[in-house]
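Researcher: Quick one. three chains, 893 residues in total.
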Amino acid sequence: MTYFLIDLLAMGMITSIMTIGLNMQYGFAGILNFTFYTFVGVGAYVTAVVTMGTPSGYGSESYILHWSLPWPIGLLIAGFVCALLGLAMIMVTIRRLRSDYLAIVTVSIGFIIWNLINNYIPLFDGGNGLFGIPYIAGGANMSNVQYSMMMGLIGLVVLVGALWLSRRIANSPYGRVLRAIREDEVIAESFEKPVRRARISIFMVGCFMAGVSGGLLAYYLTSWNPQGFLPIESFILMAALIIGGTGSNWGAIVGAFVIVELLTEISRYIPTFGSEATVGAVRAILIGLMLILFLMFRPEGIVPERPERWYRTGRVPGSEPSGLVGAIKRREAALWPSRTRQPLA
Amino acid sequence: MAEPDSPAAGVILDIQEVDFSYGGSQALSGCTFGVNRATVTGLIGPNGAGKSTLIEIIAGGLRPSAGTITFEGADIAGLGRVAIAKRGIVRTFQTSRELLRLPVIENVMLAAQNQYGENLLSGVFGKSKWAKQEKELREEAATLLEWVGLGHAMDQRAGSLSGGQRRLLDMARALMAKPKMLLLDEPTAGVYPAIVQLMAERINDVAKQGLAVLVVAHNMAFLEWVADDVVVMDQGRMLTRGHIDEVRRNELVTTAYLGG
Amino acid sequence: MLEAIGFGLVTAAVVAMAAVGLSLQVSVTNFINFAYGDFMTFGAYVAYAANSAGLNFFAAVAVGGVATALLGVLANLTVFRPFVRRKARVITLLISTIGLSFIVQNLIVIIWGTGAERYTVSIGNAHHVGPFLWTTGDMVIMVTAFVLLLGLHLMLRYTRFGKSLRATSNNPDLALASGIDTGRVVNYTWLIAGFFAAVAGVALAMELNTLRPVLGFNELFVVFGAIILGGIGRPYGAMLGALIIGILTEVSGAYLNPAYKGSIAFAVVVILLLVRPQGLLAAKGKSA
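Model:
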């Protein structure tokens, strides 16, 4: 039970880094990236091959590089590689595509990358994936619980960094430009804002986050294969962000935890019926239902986008929900009392 | 009227023989007139006369198929939106386009030109610089908003404003960019009469300070308040031009409106 | 090479049925449907259930088609119409289809499990037809696709409903103003799209000789490739797109490592979008 909770926390930290990165892309700038998790997957592989050295005793693993760099460097390299991959992808999609074209193209590119990794064995050992990714920070001598705890702490440190960056961006003139692009690109251009550069740069930052979180995942799980980043994962992240609160950093974190909770905790209470597949299916249906219901009845998500700095005069006009949503909001207010702090200016 | 290449004293924007067509239909053909500094020029005409197309072309949203547009002596025809904005022409839209989920004040702050911290690196690492600038911008935006009568609504989301308030916000936002010329596309559509009057006063204030204003409007009472001079367009070109009273009496104008 | 083209034609027939249904729906509703692949799966499973219960195979396919058509209408009434009424943005509708995809796909898992299933009919023997090598099943699929697409063409071109549908697709407001019940047109469109999805799903399961809950979801992106090639929301373009994608994947599969043949379709899509974002046949694009 303790292990379970600690594992949940550690995974929640890592997933939160992902949703914060996705939030930068979709929540801030409105860039619909339906293949975010591909970058997580690539980040995990890159981290693995630059830290795990020559193939160990697991047989005939074949992969590139064979470097044995220190683990934090591995995370950084993963981040930069993913940022560059993101640059390539955004250059393809930045032309004025309809939002749904963009969605399809991102998914398609994600699939090409997945297919390549799955089939081209010399790269990351194809469908077999990589095993024996080293435990970090002396983790080899720890128990599972201790290792989870440590990974949770490392995840927390990275998460705090990500949160700092994301908040700094959100409050800066750059963040305002991004939100302007999200709301109305023509307006942003009419006031000569650097629309193209802002889009490219925020996309790269989001992909950097994906790479780093993928690296953490690789260290935590110590193995990684193509089944770990199927297209569905990107959709789940998107659902997590929307349910948590698009555009809101805390919303991204809440979403990550809610979905992680849904993905793991609930299954502990419903294993009595059906097969394991049924349990997974029930979870997925819940996520799908929540996604649709939130879009319909509370599109701003559990934690709405940054209300504290915006509304010096207090209450948001016409947004005092009652019933279930109100209850959720009150609970959330209890969870995040800091939201009531005094605004700037 | 100004000659093609003489930036005559008062003329800031000179439109010469501009053509444009959407697919097959000719929206503008040989449209020619000039706009003076420190004056409000009204632009009227029946539906489909090409007023909005002309505004779009001046603002860089469309590229004219022929003709020249000279702004402060330089040809700007065919430049993009950003390039036009850089030269100091700022527009509002026929249907207001606010950044709905942003607070009113940030809508205005966005418009300030040459802000520090609008790039990733300066935004993240230059807080010491932009924090001060933000404070100044906030002050400036607040002053502008109070001036157009939106002081009480500064911190609401722009999406919560009424149609008339959005028009005022459009204007405040355009002025925040410190333009040399203001293009207003139907600023009075769907606006309460009281706000129309306030808007007229503000537009006159602005023109007195030296700005050229080109305003498309259907509301004659409003034009009487603001326009120093009115250009009447029909079928893609200028039909006549003059003071509003002259224009009203002009038979050509009556025919154009009635005959389509 | 010629044999590969023959296989390509079969693949194209399957993709075309799916792509035309989706494209028709997009042309009327103006949003992409990520749950469409799961509609295909659903139809294939219902047909499988009816077939296993002893119903004649073709009757079973019809049952699957009708069930999926109703599913489409149900989805429209419960999910999409409320969003449209609230004037939700295209992105919102798009994301809600992902939620729907989760729901449909996993309902299938709960009802039928994750195991691979098969129809009781076999795909028959291989025949040499000219230079091509086709099984009986292949030929049935191609004939079915031809008949369905022709029927749709005749309906769009010559019936009152077809006219209403095209009018709604071109300009919903204008259509509504000229007395067309656009709400009903949208519902009928979902019916047709669902029916095409189901038949395509069955054909796909026949071709793969196996039926799994991810059947349609995995095929979805090939279908997207076809409709992007043809220009989104252009049913006739989708047919051409399907033909190109089908032949391209099979022919490239014959020369390259077959494992990559799925990627070919996507690579083509990406390259095409770089060169011609509006699709092959598009003239004036619909705005988003």
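Residues 308-345 of chain A have pLDDT under 50 and may be disordered.
Researcher: Thanks, that's what I needed.
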